[in-house]
Specification:
The chain is built from 15 helices and twelve strands. With 489 residues, the chain is α/β, with parallel strands linked by helices. It folds into two domains: 179 residues, Aspartate Aminotransferase, domain 1, CATH 3.90.1150.170; 265 residues, Type I PLP-dependent aspartate aminotransferase-like (Major domain) (Aspartate Aminotransferase, domain 2, 3-Layer(aba) Sandwich). It has a seven-stranded mixed β-sheet with strand order 2-8-7-6-5-3-4, with helices on both faces. α1 runs parallel beside α3. It is globular. Bound molecules: pyridoxal-5'-phosphate. Pyridoxal-5'-phosphate (PLP) binds next to α6.
Length: 489
């Protein structure tokens, strides 16, 4: 009775599978809107969703596909030239095809008997990536759900390695010792908020995070880092990790990794590099040198759902010395009994925070095979070129002020009204929202030194210079229109 509901060998199920895949593909090809967003607000969207999630009997396919069409047409179109808000990429077609296989095969990476060849694919992929990052033999890693999880893993292992070496304290077994109240993490003023989030979840508290000053290009100042480390020693605090950023979210700035690595080494502190955004530069022929020093990291986050054009989720956590994974190792009789170790049966669950886990390495493998190194490099370079184009266009518009442009693929700027005495922060906030509500553009926003700014994050290498210039002009034009009716004071 249920035969055709599953992808099994029966002819009926194969036909249904082909039909469903074809219909979904056709729907995506035919009804992706030609704007970046429909502009509908949350209450209108909510009214579009039928609260009945589980009808008593199967609904007619036509009716279901009509509802799916509503969801597709009210989604942000990530490949539209005017979608440029976040580190949110249009996915590669090869990766979309691989996603279908990942889901259909439904391998689970937590044990060899659920993912035999998938285990080898991921192992080989991670080994290859550690070598690309310049790590010596003896490194390893795991695929994760995103930069948040990768950064968390870096700080978790840094915390436990520190407690073990300094106090012979097994944190996994005993929790935190009283000395943990003195432990500190250092990162730059513009490092990602997941540093605080991780510190909170690790029982250290957000107060354990010390933000270090950046220079005019939003890169951590090594001198300030040195002072902060000295200061901590004087106060009997325990700095155990430095998080350097390779590609800050708003500015794309890359911290001086070599200098920071030298300071971390001499202070005996773990260096985690958050390269969630900038990690793709490893594969850029023109910009690889910006990551000089990355190979000195103890651990590394690289997101593939950013500048590698993978569907969410796709990220990696890399570890210079694979032995540190032992700090989080657990055995379960049903899954990875210790006997398996002796028998040489691999299990990836011991390197992961998760148990059941997707075979995401497959989409990376298929994408990289189909793309090749040269094309990947050209795509990365093109996004940086596009950001330069956007920054130059901003620079030519008298009503726009460039705050920071094109360290990587972002541009931060603001609309400056010609009339004096207007609330510039308020105007920029409303300008971004107006473009969103009108369905004209999905652009980013952030605050820089108290100033409300607009942000373009160029993630689509298929966008032309002319399209990027047109987007900047649309923003400026709407700023002007808004200014006309804007009250003084
Ligand atoms: C620098 C940086 N680190 C970490 C993260 C978190 O990554 P994710 O959203 O994949 O969890 C982001 C997200 O944009 C980021 O820009």
């Amino acid at each position: 009775m249920f035969e055709s509901d599953f992808l099994i060998t029966a002819p009926a199920s194969k036909d249904l599978y082909r039909e469903l895949m074809a219909r979904v593909t056709e729907l995506l090809c035919s009804c992706l809107p030609d704007h970046s967003y429909s502009g509908k607000n949350p209450s209108v969207l909510s009214a579009l969703i039928d609260p009945e999630f589980l009808p008593d009997a199967s609904a007619a396919p036509e009716a279901v596909f009509d509802k799916l069409r509503v969801i597709v047409s009210n989604s942000v179109v990530v490949s539209h030239p005017n979608t440029a808000a976040h580190l949110h990429c249009p996915p590669l077609l090869a990766a979309l095809a691989a996603e279908a296989a990942i889901s259909a095969l439904n391998q689970s990476m937590d044990s060899f008997d659920q993912a035999p060849i998938a285990t080898s694919v991921e192992q080989k992929f991670v080994q290859w990536l550690t070598a690309e990052a310049g790590f010596p033999a003896g490194g390893n890693g795991t695929l994760t759900a995103g930069g948040t999880q990768s950064n968390y893993m870096g700080l978790l292992l840094a915390r436990d390695a520190f407690l073990k070496s300094r106090f012979q304290w097994p944190a996994q077994k005993r929790g935190l010792p009283p000395e943990a109240a003195r432990m500190r993490v250092l990162c730059s003023e513009v490092a990602h908020f997941t540093v605080e989030k991780s510190a909170a979840q690790l029982g250290l508290g957000t107060d354990a995070v010390v933000r270090v000053a950046v220079d005019d290009e939003f890169r951590m100042q090594p001198e300030s880092l040195r002072t902060a480390l000295d200061d901590m020693r004087d106060k009997n605090l325990l700095p155990f990790a430095i998080v350097a950023t390779a590609g800050s979210t708003d500015f794309g700035s890359v911290d001086p990794l070599q200098d920071i690595a030298a300071l971390a080494r001499s202070a005996g502190v773990w260096l985690h590099v958050d390269a969630a955004y900038g990690g793709s530069l490893l594969f850029s022929q023109s910009h690889r040198d910006k990551l000089e020093g990355i190979a000195s990291a103890d651990s590394l986050s690289i997101d593939f759902h950013k500048l590698f054009w993978q569907p969410i989720p796709a990220s990696a956590f890399l570890l210079r010395d694979a032995r540190h994974f032992e700090l989080i190792e657990q055995h379960a009789d049903y899954l990875n009994p210790e006997a398996h170790e002796e028998q040489g049966i691999p299990n990836l669950v011991k390197n992961s925070l998760l148990t059941t886990r997707r075979f995401d390495a497959l989409k990376l493998w298929l994408s990289f095979q189909m793309l090749g190194r040269q094309k990947l490099s050209a795509m990365i370079d093109r996004t940086i070129e596009l950001a330069l184009c956007a920054a130059n266009t901003v620079g030519r518009r008298p009503e726009l002020q460039l705050i920071h442009g094109a360290s990587l693929s972002t541009v931060v700027f603001r609309y400056i009204p010609s009339r004096q005495g207007l609330d510039v922060n308020g105007l920029n906030t409303v300008l971004r929202q107006r473009l969103f509500d009108l369905g004209l553009a999905v652009i980013g926003h952030t605050r820089v030194r108290g100033q409300q700014c607009l942000k373009l994050t160029c993630m689509n290498p298929a966008v032309s210079d002319a399209q990027m210039e047109a987007l900047v002009c649309t923003i400026a034009e709407h700023g002007r229109q808004l200014e006309v009716g804007w009250p003084l004071g």
